[in-house]
Prior knowledge:
- By secondary structure, the protein is of the alpha+beta class.
- 25% of the residues lie in helices and 22% in strands.
- The chain is built from nine helices and 16 strands.
Amino acid sequence: MAPIAVAAPNPNPNPIESLKASVASVTLNEVPPGSADLRSYAHFDATPSIGTEFREHSAAGKPILNIRDVLGDEVKLRALGRLVSERGVVFFRNAVISPEEQKTLVDTLGRLGGKPSTSGLHVHPLTMGGSELGDEISVISNQFVFDDKFKRDDFTILSRAAGRTLWHSDITFEPVPSDYASLQIRTLPPVGGDTLWASAYEAYDRLSPAYQTFLEGLTATHIGQGFIDIAKRTNATMRENRGSPENVGQSLETVHPVIRTNPVTGWKGLFVNRGFTKRINGLTKPESDQVLEFLFEHISSNHDLQVRFRWEENSLAIWDNRSTFHAATHDLDDTLREGTRSVSLGERPYLDPKSTGRREALAQAQN
């Protein structure tokens, strides 16, 4: 079966072409006129497939890039968005940034990357109105779920979830999910609480061509069941108008393509995750369960897809939710780990049949 475009209904008459046009000025290997080359600054790639970190110190004489140098500089911000989309996640050390600046950062990255004008910042369905940091900042804690009303009791060693079950991409239960997100851990444990990211590009490229073609014809249903359960248990009403006119309702359920094109890079990536993807449409339940279990294990078991980040004071992570998965490490018992997350909304996920895998694109660029 030939690859086909898969997308949910959209009021935009041609979303693929409009998104491609919005990022047409960005090229893979060249630095467009008036753009910044962030790789001229001191940095290292944490793994071959995912993760780039800007260094605090330069042993080779390269200049240092601090997040303060990027904020408010549209040229550098555009280049940063491109780098995040290519490498999946980018890390800064000694990144002094406020929660309000985190919001501006990810929203600007999305805007410069061509996101629809109707896509703003996400308001999590379990964020309580009137929270101290505002609707558009999620407090990430190992002791509660987005608000201290929703306490957690799963941090002892015998109640911890298995690490392989924690992998997810943010808010894929929304019709318009996230493009860029940022996290800074502001209350650090003495040790532990690392976060891992995995590359959806490499996960796609690691599949056989026959299996890639099979998946490209499929869609999957995503449900925020864990949040629904918390709301029912606590008699809470989930927030409406969650950053996009399409992100409304209490069901937290939507349909997305199994293989998705990132509009910034034009690369295909696997777009299912154990946290929210519940079934593959058009397959029987046994078929769907087997395919999803294989794909979930494919993400969590292959360490060559992954990068692990150890948090330090003022560390900052910025990632592209369209092309990565992530999971926190639950190894802290009752030691507090708490931070602030900002989440920009992008476009409705789609598959462009003309897009390619990351490895194929990089090989073509070298020829």
